[in-house]
Specification:
Radius of gyration: 20 Å
Shape: elongated
Order of helices and strands: HEEEEHEEEEHEEEEE
Number of helices: 3
Largest sheet: 4 strands, antiparallel
Amino acid sequence: MSELIDKTLFSVSTDETKQHLTGIFFQAGDNIATSVSTDGHRLSMSEFGYEGDFSLEEGIIIPRKGAMEIKRLADSQAETLQMAYLVEKKLFSVRTQTVTLTVRIHDSKFPPFEQVIPKYKENRMVIPCAPFQQSLKRIDLLSDGSESGVIFSISKDHLNLKGTDIMKGKAHEEMEVDHEGDEILWAMGR
């Protein structure tokens, strides 16, 4: 639960006029828990396998503050985390051996996020996580404060990352990846 929240909390909207975006959409079924959040510009999704009989097929929206408290509880006592959803009261409850936390969920509908997630049928790439993160950090140092972002160029088994800053110059990183599909040129802004 902690990992699901951690990987999606950063893209929760802070715009209180869009209540359906100010929390994490949480769904569970077939022993796969899914968390999704968006602020209208970014969308993050995380999936994690779990044991037990808990099911929440339609999903709920857990408010940002409630999600942070659930994460803190899961971090401190992760060995025995039990969950329950009280449908008629719109309450989500998380319980450990010593603490029970109850959160009132948002009574709204989350946007259909599945429509914007690519299906990955034709293009697939596997990237070694640590070297990729290090490359992004090095390029980010150069483009600090710039709105230019990072340009990805993907070809057969190679990923090129480029960043440019008018005052500091250019950065270029290249790494080997496992890529199947078309060559892609993609710009990622901040």
